[in-house]
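Progress against Task 2.4 (sequence-to-structure conversion) is shown through the following example record, which the project officer requested during the mid-term review.
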Amino acid sequence: MMRLFKLGHAILWGVFLAAGWPPLQVEAQLTVAEFTEGNRESWYLIDSDTSTLSVETEAGQLGSLPELNFAAKDPSSLQSIATHFPAINLKEAGDSITLQFDVRHNHEGFVNRGFRFGLFDSNETRFTEDGDYDLSPVSLDDNGYFAILDLGSKTTADSVVIRESSNHTTERLWNGTAIASDDNDTAPDLLMLTRYINFTYTLTLTRNSDGNVDIVLKNNISKEHGAMQTTSSVTPTLSFDTLYFATSGSTANFAIDNVLVTSNLSSSQNPSIDIDKSSLVKSDGIDKKKVQVGVYVDVCAGQSVRKLLLALDRYKDVSVTLLKAVDIQEGKLAGLDVLMQPGGSAGVQGRNLGTIGREQIRKFTHDGGGYVGFCAGSYLASTYYSWSLNILDADIVDLEHWARGTGTVELALTNSGKEILNTKENEISIYYGQGPLFAPGNQSDVEDYETVATYQTEIAKKGAPEGVMVGTTAIARGNYGNGRVFCFSPHPELTEGMEHLVYYAIENVKRNRVN
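Structure tokens generated for the chain above:
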């Protein structure tokens, strides 16, 4: 039986799913926001009389459909927006609530802890003002959980923090007990909100058997493998009826849409709902129809790895597993079809993988797996260094001037390269970020590589001599044992309109599986 609730322009409907039995859980989904032209009913601008809150219907950041536009104009203080929804109570172990939304911003600088969002219990002190700014004092005794994200292109040691709120603070989403943080400043922060990119964030709170709250924060590139997971035991909040978004230190313009609150509650809280168990589906593990791609996201994987993951997220027939060096060392490449090593620092990546990790990659590739390298990952694949993988028989030209600068270059495609990359164009423009200039190596036990593209133009900055880069190999592919290797010196994942080359590389090297 389906139950409908009206909340301004919000609708609650039952979606009946289960992961197993018993206890039976019933999922209900609350559409908090399906914005229509000029209508932001039930949404409130809090803490600021300078910021604006409106619904944009044309040329929005997220697309052509109406979206909520939150323009933060006072960087000196916290500025927040909020809405209410019917209360959801986590009464039994396994009960959960999830907040999911799409967001994009246009701030060009870096803002430490610039964006926040979370789920709260209003303690029955709901907003009632309808204006753009709530002029009346509003109670601050809300309790709940919220995430803090950096804005920009680089991260700091505390770029993502999940906290439990405190009812003693003077502002919401400001202070509280720190529960978890990303304190690894040497690895890319997959959860950070980068400008000019559409992200989907998910915050899930689940009551555990101890009566505490398990927390999972993820987005569409981190997914489950790169999610932040922790447990809060500090006076747990178990009832929720309010969600907040906030910014601090920013004058960014935020676009927010597709805001969903989903609850998964024990069936005892929904006695009137009948469930047809024959319609419930259980998963049998890995979807064998998808290409299983592992991506290195550990120490000195550069910020480009986030763009790489976004490019991979476009393809529904690709399943991504995020890998640390220890995962590779422990043999977790087994079951994958392709390994991708992103840009960053090749030497540090190689040394971080260690002898064991590098040997695991060689074995994986030799036994039929595929390898795709980007910039640093291509340096790593070569036969040139002591920390190299030695799976692509390639030397590095003009190593002395490896830091020759960045910029857009032209590549000339070979005839086979045009076929591999599925294009009729003879040349393509692509972003270069100090990747390797390849030349054939001299390893007798590794097959010679095939040139897919060469550099037609060059970057010659920082004292690098002119005339060296042109004609060297920019994209190469080769065989290593039963596996295949594909290396990009430049960055298709960082070049608008060239992200599809990532997919063609996967298609070229993926393991041939017999189902």
